[in-house]
Amino acid sequence: MNVDLSRRSFLKLAGAGAAATSLGAMGFGEAEAAVIAHVRPHKLTKTTETRNTCPYCSVACGVIIYSKGDLRKGETADIIHIEGDADHPTNRGTLCPKGAALKDFVKSPTRLQYPMHRKPGSDRFERISWEDAFDRIARLMKDDRDANFVAANAAGVPVNRWTTVGMLAASATTNETAWATFKFAKSLGIVGFDNQARV
Amino acid sequence: MSVSPVQPDPSVIGGVPKAPFALMPKLARLFNDRASRFEALAQSSHLAAYLNFLAGITRIQSELVSALPPPEPVRADRVERARANAMPPIDRAAMGSSPDCREVLRQFFEKAEALEKPAAASEALAQVRTADEEMLTWMIGNVMADDLPVESLAHHLYVAAAMQIHAARLAAGLDGSRLVPIRVGVCPACGGRPVASMVIGFHGAEGARYASCSCCATMWNEVRVKCLACGSTKGIGYRAVETGDEEATVKAEVCDTCNSWMKILYQNKNPSLDVVADDVASLGLDLLMKDTEYKRAGFDPFLMGY
User: Fold this and answer.
1) Which residue in B71, B204, B209, B273 has the fewest CB atoms around it within 10 Å?
2) Residues in chain B with pLDDT < 70?
């Protein structure tokens, strides 16, 4: 409702019908009724547009993700389109070829959705639980670090260097996530490391 | 060896221009294109009678902007003062009393007489034409306040349509690059409320969203996925009349913060969309939105009461 029904101070101009809509007041009530009859069986579809950051590289271009369905209204949402965010100062709506194919990345049948493990000598990946994955990663990291950690350099100065493991972290992170990631990697002494905090 | 007149310009490679803040109305096309759009929409709409009538109104607007001599421009010092204080340079309160504006109104009402229209519309026009100074000033004041009284929407439709002509002429004389943002959902040229917003697709601003002023037709850049009534970016969703598999090009942008909604038109998907013509033609969306918890925030003197 964009007219205030309580505002009837000047009644000197009251029209014949004094209808509450422009169409009614102008005498196009029939056309209005036809639209009402036509639209009644139709429903409203809910869609959303969500800002996000492209996860590919540390340039971190802004994207808008279009979904059908609204999670906040208790529906399931399905991504239907992803495009560059014209308001984002970094990319101003543009995307590189990888970024432009983001929807295929989301919908890819080969997309990694849970931890997978390829055992030594095996020719295929098997699904494992997060619990097992964390335990195994921690075990292997500990063993490798114990075996290869550099505690002092050639001159005997104490250093914190773990050169046999590298880490590549995601770009689509907040400042805080990037900070925590950096602290994690550097406190372990990982030298070969890249994440969003570099930019 | 001859020198080619075509010189390479490496500066354009990889350059992505910043979308301009304001797009001023182009008088030669604005109302003419809008009238054509009204006519095109009327061919396949249940609202054909009203759309054809508005096509006639818009044709008159188009004729008058091309026939009238250019108005006295907004003074440069006024523009600078408005800039310094983040105010619109066009003075809406004063605009309606200028003799130039009154002449536009008079000519518009006279030409509107020839339009084919229902009895109620004729009666309203006759009352507007014979209105005394006090009554006319009151109606202009209502239109300039973007607040139309419900019992005389028909009368105010004519006054608003005539004021659109004058306001667009004034806005067309302004330099868009000298305008500054005032507040979310407020026209930087005249301070008016938007009809709706449009995601545009033309070079230099692909995918950017522009709100379109209901009075002076200035379009100004507003960040996407943001409520133009309250400025919130939280709880924004979109509603459209279901159209099968095809993605709707006119949607309602709803806001859970202030419980209002405004139309958003995807001109980048359908270049023929016109903000006013398609606002009226998509009345079905208004009717369905009426049953939701959201209230309409878009202001269009041709589509009041939803």
Assistant:
1) B204
2) 1-2, 11-14
